[in-house]
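Re: the 264-residue chain
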Amino acid sequence: MEIKIDKLQVLEKIGFNYEEIKKDLAISLNKYTDLVVTEDAISEAKQSRANLNKLATALNDEKIRIKKLQLKPLEEFEIQIKELIAMIAKPSDQINDRVKEFETKVKSDKRDEIEVYFNSINTNTLVKFDNIFEIAWLNSGFKIKSIKTILDVFLRKTEDELQIIKDLKSVNEFNLIDKYISTFDLGEVLKENQRIIALKAELDKPKIKEVVKEEVKEEVVIQPIIEKEPEIEREVSFKVTVTDTQLALLKNFLVDNKIKYGKA
C-alpha cells in the first residue's frame, strides 16, 4: 500500500502589473520625500497619509486572497493525509500495547527463572536474591546460561569471602558481615576491620600504661587456686528487632556458642 500522487502542477509565478505599479508609485511618492507639514497643510498631509495606507491595505488584501487560492488544494490534501494517519494510529497503538505486555511477561518469566535457579544453588541465608539481582539480566542480550554462570561464580566467591571475614575472629564480626552483605566488597570490609583495630589500639594505649605502673608497685601475692563451680544454665526470654541479615547472624552466634534457643 502506497500513496500515489496525480501529476502535480508546480505553481507558476503569479504575474501582475508589478513594474507598472512600482513605476507609478515611485513617481507619486516622490513628492512626499521632502514634505514639510505646516498648519495650513496639516489636513492635506493627513489625507495623503490615509490614501497611502488605503493603497497598502488593498495590496496586502490582494496578496492574502491569492495566497488562500493557491494554498486551498494543499490544505485539502493535508486534511486528507491527517485523516489517513488517524486511521492508522489506533490499531498501531493497540499493537504497541500488546507488544509491551508480551515483553513485560517475557521479562517477568525470565526473572522468575533466574530466581528459582539462584535459590536452588544458594546455601547461605544471608545472601538474598534481591540484593544481587541486576535489571540488565532481563535484556534479550543476556542469555540464561550466561546468567547462571555469573550466579555460580558469584556465590562461590561470596562463600570464600565470608569465610575470610570469619577467620579474622573480629569482635565486630557481626557488623563486618553486615557491611559485606550490603556491598559484597571484601576490600572495603578489610579496610573497615583495620580501621577498627587501629582505633581500638589507640584507645587501649593509656590503659596499658596504667596497668604497667600498678604492676610495678604491687607485691607478688600467691593466690590459692579455687575450683570454679559449674555454671548454672538459666532460661531467659527477650525480644529483639533485627533485619533478615542480622537475624541470620544472631542464629549463627547462638549455634557457635552452643546456646540453646527456641520459641517462648
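The chain has a mean pLDDT of 82.
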